[in-house]
Design a protein that fits this description.
Structural class: alpha+beta
Distance between the termini: 57 Å
Number of helices: 1
Shape: rod-shaped
Order of helices and strands: EEEH
Strand content: 25-35%
Number of strands: 3
Protein name: Flagellar protein FlbD
């Protein structure tokens, strides 16, 4: 994941991801809030990808019901 930072340029704040400018906003407080929300969403997306990833464990064998036995 990229390193995020906020720099002031004149009367505006620029949010940087690594060395790339990704957002320009007039309030530092709003820049911090948006950056925090974005980081939380990225963390949630990462956790969802991990949870949905294929498992390397074996599937449990399916045991037939007693009524299905010969």
């Amino acid at each position: 994941m990229s390193e995020y930072s906020i720099v002031r340029v004149g009367n505006e704040y620029i949010v940087l991801a690594g060395d790339k400018s990704i957002l320009k906003i007039s309030s530092r407080r709003k820049a911090v809030k948006i950056m925090t929300l974005a980081a939380d969403l990225l963390d949630q997306e990462t956790m969802q990808q991990v949870e949905n990833a294929p498992s390397i464990s074996r599937d449990l064998p399916i045991v037939p019901e007693k009524s299905e036995l010969p």
